[in-house]
Specification:
This protein is mostly helical. It has a domain at 61-203: Tetracycline Repressor, domain 2. The protein has helices at 12-30, 40-47, 63-87, 91-108, 110-125, 127-153, 162-178, 188-203.
Amino acid sequence: MAGAVKIPHQDESLIKTRRRQIFLAACRVLARKSFHQATVKEIALEAGIAAGSVYLYLRSKDEILLLLADSMVGELVEGLPEIRADSAGDPRRELLGIMRRVLDIIDRYREAFAVLNHEVRYLARRQRYKASLQTILEPYLSSLGSVLKRGREMALMQVEDVASVVEAVHMLCSGWSTGTGLLEKTDKETYWREISNIIQGRFFIDAA
């Protein structure tokens, strides 16, 4: 867990529970206001814990952003074994499965994800948080990268630069949160059909 403080005499399960409380509370607060308007005290009250207790689990307000990323990526990682099993060895199906789970996670925490997506560049520019952010995002980015490489090796995907396609996939999924104004009258399933069709039409090769 990136950013978690080692607390004497507290077991990992309690730390995990408290961080989950803070994450969900932050998501609710960020549905009402921006990250910079929100306060640690407000998030603590929303979580039902004392304001000072937040700093037992996070070192600063900025680390709430790391917690958002860590929690959302964690939900993706939990689903990867099932996605791989359901794909039956077909990297095209696995890629769509990962994308669908990412979209569902973004939808579940839509406003908080929009905040995170906006603030992540700020974190990446700060040496204090850069390494932690890279560690948190690595399982997500590598899951996309590895399936794209396998698809290319099996001649099932047309991919020239893996990093570019990883970014493209991420941007398509992120659009569900960042494009809320334009998508005001679009439902999630319609959006999913459109972005999955883009990926299939551009990168997938039909098996002979």
